[in-house]
Amino acid sequence: MEANSSREIEARNYLEKHRIMELLTYLTSALLFFRPALKTLGLCTADEVLKDDGHGITCEKFMYEVNKKTQEIWSAF
């Protein structure tokens, strides 16, 4: 049990030292900024047409759509 704890601490220290979580956060943010769509997250099919009302998508609207699509996907299981 102690070996697992030691490895976990070692891994956590590595992630902190090399700022891996910050890098992943940045990359995810950049991806969503430069390719903003549910398709980027795999929540839309390739042939699905997204409605564009000509206005920017707010964070709240984006989160609503992500949650709605996620629920639709999970309801199939």
From TrEMBL:
Recorded name of the encoding gene: PUS7
Cross-referenced PANTHER family: EF-HAND CALCIUM-BINDING DOMAIN-CONTAINING PROTEIN 10
Protein name: Pseudouridine synthase 7
Organism, as annotated: Phocoena sinus (Vaquita)
CDD domains: DD_EFCAB10
Domain EFCAB10 C-terminal EF-hand: 13-71
Coiled coil stretches, renumbered: none
